[in-house]
Specification:
Layout (H helix, E strand, L loop, with lengths): L2 E7 L9 E7 L2 E7 L12 H4 L1 H5 L9 E3 L8 E3 L2 H18 L4 E5 L12 H9 L3 E3 L5 H10 L16 E5 L3 H4 L1 H12 L3 E5 L5 H5 L2 E3 L6 H14 L5 H7 E2 L1 H9 L3 H8 L3 H16 L4 E5 L9 H15 L8 E3 L10 H5 L10 E3 L3 H4 L14 E5 L3 H4 L3 H8 L5 E6 L11 E4 L8 E3 L6 E5 L12 H12 L10 H6 L14 H7 L1 E3 L19 E2 L3 H5 L19 H6 L2 E4 L15 H7 L3 E4 L1 H6 L7 E6 L2 E9 L7 E3 L36 E6 L3
Parallel strand pairs: 6-15, 7-14, 8-9, 8-12, 9-10, 11-21, 12-13, 15-16, 16-17, 22-26, 23-25
Antiparallel strand pairs: 1-2, 2-3, 4-5, 4-17, 18-19, 19-20, 22-27, 23-26, 24-25, 24-27
Bound molecules: ligand MGD (2 copies), iron/sulfur cluster and molybdenum atom.
One ligand MGD binds next to helix 6.
Length: 692
């Protein structure tokens, strides 16, 4: 028997981007382990990826191209050859490409975070066609935009520093589920005497293990940050020297936050005045004592109308107290902006002959149903889906499903499994998993460039996305040399070596080593150097004003809440959030039995008071509904959910739920204040017991 160990990378949409060691015995992957030498992975994987071979060798892997033989949505297919699949697709796309190329739409997100199997050959293909561009907003653009206005790009505190902080505020994140290796560092900080505080309307696994848990109403974090700034300024818990040198607009900020008294903030957030004042005092006094104070802000604060503003306001805090002076102080939203990845070379926007329209992936529900019009352009006639499962993950799901059910829509899906979206495909193309293909990776949690080697041969007739788009380009008759680049050639241009952060990048050596840290200063903003227009941390942002936004920190109430929409709240009084379940990764892994069993079935956590009002007992089946739709889940009566809100951990495959529905039946397509992002956690519902 020959046994080898192959260096690989976890491809999932998780900030940890773990370094993997794959054991291969006679061509079969038998174990996937965390690389003990990689500083953030440290030999540990989450339960999902520790069982990766179960997913790769799953009996239901798609191994051959398929053609639909049933109705759309029914999921009935027959096997066809690659030749037939490719020629069918080219025959359907060619006339559309000649007549109205923008009627062709790619739909993809982060099923893999790889630079190659994500947007490289695929973008070249769609750029050559002149297809509609896709605005990839479904996750991170609200916060990224708010952060950009304030700090510059997505650069912040290095994850490898958090263990040295004396106070860590985990704001709108549940790292035990979704950022495990950060949690390891937070625990180390705790052992070193740090205080951990969670800000989350739900007593998540993480909130449960912090020293303190502050539970504001969903969507009110921007107000809480204004209240903290109010107290910091009123009690002079400030770093005046840092403010003078490295910030812009302090006097205007001071006037603005004067309006946000702790009383007003407590009322807006549904918490006590003491919680506001004490949190500010602890943050300001710890910083004043010269100790590092750090904030990990995550996606929980962003999925509401004011999600961009929330991140913007929170991102002002470190500069006020001079937290950036320490490597272990400051704030981390995402490290993605630290990577000089070479998107222009990989994606080749120069292949576009004209600038096409852009379609927002968040509003796919409406956009697939939109007729041609001068404002919209041509109706969508063909959609090619890869690295995403829109029928399960996009908001206002009944509209998404209705769009994909259109008889006149030609749909191609590249997938590993027969997901909810695959059920609507005309042609299904089997894709390889990370163990079967090559890729280069950035991270949005740490600062390492990463290389994924193929550990095993592709299963069945599956192919990498890159190869599928090469073959589709050939079938369309595209003969540009860029469609012949191999995966190794693509990987070798993945990072821009003219950038000081990646001057040492070399694909051949990265493949051998597996990972390499970027050249970055330990404390990125100790001496200022923000990448905003002024080079300062912008409390006042002229760019926001030019974009029609309030140039100062402000508060925007949710679209749907008792305070902001009492009329709607009469019918639908409960706020619903649907954050990630620990054993799934978005809708990935829901079909892996051991992981699904760990989650059980779709649940809804509801506070005892709210349950009692509705005659709901623990383990009752309940129907969650509003004007957009409904779904069924099993009630868990628990004070983990604060009164007035309910929690449905997500994202379930619809077809694996009893009623064939999931939480996105009730979420809306309304967009955030900035970044054009979804408002999944800005949803009012009513709940009733289902009588069996
Ligand atoms: N196991 C697992 N890991 C994942 C994922 C997964 O599905 N499963 N998904 C990955 C992806 S794509 C992403 S984007 C990240 C998400 O990463 P995180 O943002 O850390 O997501 P969660 O772990 O759900 O943490 C969000 C927390 O915010 C809380 N929350 C909801 N609304 C509000 C609010 O208005 N204010 C505040 N303060 N908190 C609120 C929720 O209760 C939840 O506990 O995780 C990634 N990692
Ligand atoms: N209600 C609610 N909805 C949400 C969220 C929420 O918190 N609540 N979270 C939102 C967030 S943060 C995100 S990021 C989105 C995520 O939405 P998506 O990015 O669509 O993520 P997944 O649901 O994991 O689907 C990814 C699919 O890509 C496939 N895939 C993986 N690797 C490859 C590959 O190499 N090739 C091909 N062809 N396919 C591959 C997987 O099999 C999987 O089916 O969901 C959003 N939806
Ligand atoms: S999902 Fe996250 S924690 Fe799990 S192996 Fe992948 S990168 Fe690591
Ligand atoms: Mo996400």
């Amino acid at each position: 028997m020959t046994t080898t160990q192959v260096r690989a990378v976890c491809p999932h949409d998780c900030p940890d981007t773990c370094a993997l060691l794959v054991t291969v015995e006679d061509g079969v992957a038998t174990a996937v382990k965390g690389d003990p030498d990689h500083p953030t992975t440290a030999g540990v994987l989450c339960t999902k990826v520790a069982r990766y071979t179960e997913r790769t060798y799953h009996a239901e892997r798609l191994l051959h191209p398929l053609r639909r033989i049933g109705k759309k949505g029914e999921g009935k297919f027959e096997r066809i050859s690659w030749d037939e699949a490719l020629s069918t697709i080219a025959a359907r796309l060619k006339p559309i490409a000649a007549r109205a190329p923008q009627a062709i739409l790619p739909y993809s997100y982060c099923g893999t975070m790889g630079l190659l199997q994500g947007e490289s050959m695929s973008s070249r293909f769609f750029n050559k066609i002149g297809a509609s561009l896709l605005d990839r907003t479904v996750c991170a653009t609200a916060g990224a935009t708010g952060y950009k206005y304030t700090i510059g790009g997505s650069v912040g505190t290095d994850m490898e520093q958090f263990q040295n902080a004396k106070l860590i505020i985990i704001w709108g994140g549940n790292p035990i589920a979704s950022n495990l290796h950060f949690w390891t560092r937070a625990q180390e900080a705790k052992r070193n005497g740090a205080k951990l505080i969670a800000i989350d309307p739900y007593r998540s696994l993480t909130a449960e293990k912090c020293h303190q848990h502050v539970a504001p109403l969903p969507g009110t974090d921007a107000a809480l940050a204004l209240g903290l700034m109010h107290v910091l300024i009123a009690e002079d818990l400030l770093d005046h020297d840092y403010i003078a040198r490295h910030t812009l607009g302090f006097e205007q900020l001071k006037a603005r936050v004067a309006e946000w008294t702790p009383e007003r903030v407590a009322d807006t957030c549904g918490i006590t005045v003491a919680e506001v004042v004490e949190l500010a005092r602890l943050y300001g006094a710890t910083a004043k004592a010269g100790e590092p104070v750090a904030i990990r802000v995550n996606y929980g604060v962003q999925r509401v109308r004011g999600g961009g503003t929330a991140v913007r306001n929170i991102a002002c805090l470190p500069a006020l107290v001079g937290a950036w002076r320490h490597a272990a102080g400051g704030i981390q939203l995402s490290s993605s902006g630290s990577f000089p990845s070479n998107k222009v070379a990989l994606q080749r926007p120069d292949l576009l002959k004209a600038m096409p329209r852009t379609i927002n992936m968040t509003t796919i529900g409406d956009d697939l149903l939109r007729p041609a019009s001068p404002a919209f352009g041509p109706a969508v006639e063909a959609v090619i889906v890869y690295n995403s499962n829109p029928v399960a993950i996009a908001p206002d799901s009944s509209k998404v499903a209705a769009g994909f059910a259109r008889e006149d829509l030609f749909t191609v899906v590249l997938e590993h499994f027969q997901t909810d979206t695959v059920d609507y495909a005309d042609i299904v193309l089997p894709a390889t998993t990370q163990l079967e293909h090559v890729d280069a990776h950035t991270s949005f949690g740490h600062l390492y460039m990463m290389a994924n080697n193929a550990a095993i041969a592709p299963l069945g007739e599956s192919k990498p996305n890159t190869e599928i788009f090469r073959l589709l380009a050939a079938a369309m008759g595209f003969d540009d040399p860029c469609f012949r680049d191999t995966d190794d050639e693509l990987a070798s241009i993945a990072f821009n070596t003219k950038d000081v952060r990646a001057v040492h990048f070399d694909w051949e050596s990265l493949k051998l080593k597996g990972w390499q840290k970027l050249n970055m200063p330990e404390a990125p903003f100790a001496q200022g150097g923000f990448t905003t227009p002024s080079g300062k941390c912008e409390f006042y942002s002229a760019a926001m004003e030019a974009d029609g936004l309030d140039p100062l920190p402000t508060y925007l109430a949710p679209y749907e809440s008792v305070a902001s929409n009492p009329q709607l709240a009469k019918k639908y009084p409960l706020a619903m959030i649907s954050p990630p379940a620990r054993n799934f990764l978005n809708s990935t892994f829901v079909n892996v039995k051991s992981l699904r069993s760990a989650e059980g079935e779709p649940h809804l956590d509801i506070h005892p008071e709210d349950a009692a009002k509705r005659g709901i007992s623990d383990a009752d089946m309940v129907r969650i509904h509003n004007d957009r739709g409904s779904f069924i889940a099993k009630a868990r009566v628990t004070d983990k959910a604060r009164p007035g809100m309910v929690v449905g951990l997500s994202v379930w495959w619809k077809k694996l739920a009893k009623d064939g529905k999931n939480a996105n039946e009730v979420t809306s397509q309304r967009l955030t204040d900035m970044g054009r992002a979804p408002t999944f956690y800005d949803t009012l519902v009513e709940i009733e017991r289902v009588v069996a």
